[in-house]
Design goal:
This protein has one domain. The protein contains 1 helix and no strands. The chain is rod-shaped.
């Protein structure tokens, strides 16, 4: 957003990115193993 909320939005987007990467890695390992 605008102004003071930027740091909060940054950490939120980082959290979402980390979660998405975790899911992708998990699925990759699952499908890679099977």
């Amino acid at each position: 957003g605008i102004g003071g909320v930027v740091s909060g939005e940054k950490s939120l987007s980082w959290g979402l990115s980390a979660a998405a990467m975790g899911l992708v890695v998990s699925f990759t390992f699952l499908f890679g193993i099977t």
